[in-house]
Design brief:
Low-confidence stretches of chain B: none
Largest sheet of chain A: 7 strands, mixed
Oligomer: heterodimer
Structural class of chain A: alpha/beta
Distance between the termini of chain A: 49 Å
CATH superfamily of one domain in chain B: Thiamin diphosphate (ThDP)-binding fold, Pyr/PP domains
Strand order of the largest sheet of chain A: 11-10-12-13-15-14-20
Strand content of chain B: 15-25%
Largest interface: A-B, 74 and 61 residues
Strand content of chain A: 15-25%
Radius of gyration of chain B: 23 Å
Radius of gyration of chain A: 27 Å
Structural class of chain B: alpha/beta
Number of strands of chain A: 23
Number of helices of chain B: 11
Mean pLDDT of chain B: 96
Strand order of the largest sheet of chain B: 2-1-3-4-8-7-13-9
CATH class of one domain in chain B: Alpha Beta
Order of helices and strands of chain B: HEEHEHHEEEHEHEHHEEEEHEHHE
Helix content of chain B: 25-40%
Mean pLDDT of chain A: 93
CATH superfamily of the largest domain in chain A: Pyruvate-ferredoxin oxidoreductase, PFOR, domain III
Shape of chain A: globular
Distance between the termini of chain B: 60 Å
CATH architecture of one domain in chain B: 3-Layer(aba) Sandwich
Number of domains of chain A: 3
Amino acid sequence: MTTTTAEPEVANPKTVNPVPSATIRFCGDSGDGMQITGDQFTSTSALLGNDVATFPDYPAEIRAPRGTLAGVSGFQVHFSSEDIFTPGDTLDALVVMNPAALKTNLRDLRKGGILICNSDNFQKSDLDLAGYDVNPLDSQVLEDQYQLFKVQMTKITREALKDTGLGTKEVDRCKNFFALGLVYWLYGRDQEPTLRYLQSKFSNKPEIIAANTKAMRAGWNYGETTDAFTSSYKVEPAQLPPGKYKNMKGNTAMAWGLMTAAKLSGKELFLGSYPITPASDILHELSKFKNFGVRTFQAEDEIAAVCSAIGAAYGGAMGITTSSGPGIALKGEGIGLAIMLELPLLVINIQRGGPSTGLPTKTEQADLFQAILGRNGESPMPVIAARSPGDCFDAAIEAWRISSRMMVPVMVLSDGYIANGSEPWLIPDYNKLEKIPIHHPVPSENGEKFKPYQRDELLARPWGIPGIKGLMHRLGGLEKQDVTGNVNYEPENHEHMVHTRAKKVDNVAQLIGLQEVEGPETGDLLVLSWGGTYGACKTAVEQCQEQGIKVAHAHLRWLNPFPRNLGDVLKRYKKVLVPELNKGQLRMIIRSKYLVDAQGLNKIQGRPFFVQEVVAAIRGQLGLASANGSKPTATAAVSGIAGSGDAGG
Amino acid sequence: MPTELPTLTPADFASDQDVRWCPGCGDYAILAQMKKVMPQLGVARENVVFISGIGCSSRFPYYMNTYGLHSIHGRAPAFATGLKSSRQDLQVWVVTGDGDGLSIGGNHFMHLIRRNVDLKIMLFNNRIYGLTKGQYSPTSPLGKVSVSTPMGAIDNPLNPLSVAIGCEATFVARSIDVNIKHLGEVMKRAAEHKGTAFIEIYQNCNVFNDGAWDYATSKETKHDNVLELEHGKPLIFGKAKNKGIRLNGTHPEVVELGKGISEDDLLFHDEKAPEPTLAYLLSRMRHPEFPEPIGVFRDVDGPKYDVELNRQITAAREKKGEGDLNALYNSGETWTVG
């Protein structure tokens, strides 16, 4: 299926060009079904054995005004015969369903790339909405710079579906599957997985299955039979480590990781949550699994969400709350109480662009300070950040391992980019995962009174739960005496307790292992990253290493506490570059904690890093000329919060 | 269950902590009644949890020898909902006040009641902020002069029972701190109710709002100003039991018995009425126009969030079997490498 027929009677045999990888983007109006189209292309490519990485990008409005620039929704897929870690910098192919999509996305298409346009949607009114005075498809510029394909998708889809009995509106809704079919042909993809998807998704709507199938086949046939396309492309399967895979989204991985952590620790999961983009999908996913003992509570607000989870934790459940930055702000007081009560709790922040409502559907890493510092009083808590969609699974399990072991709430950071993005996920065997032992105290045999704040060697207190005779005790948010837990306002006791709670969080470093470095042990430059920028930083560092540059990469998993050896690692390199999708929050912490002259690469555009931006910053730090002369869009070493640390990039 | 329990006394429910309310505070009487009622409820001490927010009343859990959680301002209903939803075996009480429950915690109060989680709420209403030293509260009357309203309060107060009924409460009751026998009975009724049981307790703050409830508590006036509700009985009050409440159209009116008016002409209390109309009407009877009813206004059955949530868990397990993570991981489209 992946190559065209070579039978002699075909008048116009087409060539198939092998390429190692390709990056394509579908974009159109937010009602055009671009997300589903991209999703299908991704699943199919993953099933074919390609490594994949995706970047869905959509407006905050459910249906922004039709045809406008603000209403454009896009889905980018990078699929490869090699191991990849990012959704790609520039596009090899761009599918646009209207002029607004063309206008907002064309800049990302590489020169000579494939540009497929639904020319039926380039009427006067469409052009007006996008702010075009003349039809760009008629200009020679596009023809000269790109491989332009003007396809009458609306007309051909209507023609193909004329016997289905569906109305024009329903028929027109199928044109995204025409586009999908065409791109399937272009990259030699199998249509079967999407046919299976249609069968299961619309099992009681046979007319919808039939219509979309026809539209997709019409798209495929258009590529196959018309003269417009003379060649197609082929991306061979990637050599991933052996095993069984599935395509995994970040938020799904997070939900499954939480369920797995619950089971590994013999706990039932209680999620208190309030709907918020881009975290709601975790609530939706967990709500499906009541037969796993998963209790989800859609609370009246963010505060009730965290408080209900703490209430459940007090009762001995695995308490979790999920949100994004604005919601985390509201939860601050509740999290502080959990720190004071010393109860386990997971607080999951799927970061988005801020401040305030900010950019709800766009990604950012600007909640690090909030995670580490964002509560009243001295209130430290461990913070872990997932680095990729599939890694959300492991981060969730590790967070619960620490939280339940240390009796402390843990903040889990993800972001909109990895939450909605997807990648191949090596399916684990549950039985081979390490269990999470949890012990609840029982009454002492000698009748001694239960001491709720008596600590173990790592300073964790016992998790005594209601319903146990002889352990009756009261917990609260007032400062308490160590060991007994009784309310206590004595000055020395307060200082002791503040230090004890901090030391306990520091002790997490004894459980999380040492910081590892990819690349030379010492050298000119260390790139220090955290969270969802992992893929771009890793790829950029590898590219530079191939160019002979002495650069290494350290990616932080725990942001609080840091690994014990981080200070030593930082000092082994002449320079440290910290790329972040914020104004330099990790950089500021690193500078203050280790007195290292770390430099920043900072981008605050609601979009992830391009690999080439990081490459350019690395070269800039080392005084090397830009490899391709292109200018990065991110600001290397912006001036800002880190003050004197800023230097020219 | 009761047969397995040792016989306990009120002293068994006293914790080892010194009670730190002001001398003469109405909270002492409420605490004493709670300790007295607890042994009669047939629930083991270790299965009882008191959860509070912030305020004078919210110190309550520290003084009960049960499990307890002194949480943050206004949020006790949310903690309690999480606990009860995941621990059906526990009896959970929420202790709150007029500021904690109706001002900062108003949202949670409303949603707890509409969800009808199987919890008991005691709202100590002293019509003032005590712990923060005397600001007016959402139940302070118009014109209330306080440290934050030197020219008198200009925002209309709300009526806790009307709010609760408006939120579809299945159990609402009122009692008075010094009316100890009545208070104990109401607590017991709340404990027996399945679903959210809400009790407003008139409580005197003798430091910042002394005498706010005098009309309902002083020997001279209480009989004329308070009406004790009894299910199925006519609404009668007054020291000589010679006054009653009659319905005139949709309006209640005070009438004197005799002179052609008999008990049969009066409004009869029905705490089981499916519609909350009567309970709401009773909640609107305020001093000085009317005697203020105490007792159980409403006691009906309704779906309980915590019960239904656990029913869904059981039903899902029966239908699909206990969840299998390996099966989940391997669901949907997969492919194999090597």
